[in-house]
Amino acid sequence: MRARVKKLLRMYVHYAPPSSGVIVFLFWRELRLPAFACIGFDYICVSVLGMDSQKEALQRIITTLANKNEELHNFMETLSHSLAGVQVNSPQAVSDLEEEFDTLFTVLVEMKESMISTIKQEAAKKTQEIQVPDP
User: Fold this and answer.
1) Residue 30 has what pLDDT?
2) The whole model's pTM is what?
3) What is 46-108 written as a DSSP string?
4) Which of 70, 62, 67, 69 is nearest to 46 (CA)?
5) Max alpha carbon distance in the chain (Å)?
């Protein structure tokens, strides 16, 4: 019978993955077994036998939830600090990038003018070499 319960429990938990954070309370009255409390995010399953055991199980569940809540708040605070850093640093990064592109554009314009001048000089020189003197 315990194997059947474990199989049913595994099947049910399979549909509540660890990352879901779902708390599931299962009561197997038709199997004449005590109730089970199952916390989905770390697969802790506790058999609730009596009032004291039930209180202990609920206390463990509450403690686990409080810890997960604290972890979430810490994560949210970390994200908030990261966002603030991005908001502070991004305008300077954009400004630096614009300055770099302006510098590159200026260099490209100078190179273009230099190459055009060189091509015109070469063309004039070759044209002059090819021209036949007038008699």
Assistant:
1) 46
2) 0.42
3) EEE-SHHHHHHHHHHHHHHHHHHHHHHHHHHHHHHHHHHHHHHHHHHHHHHHHHHHHHHHHHH
4) 62
5) 126
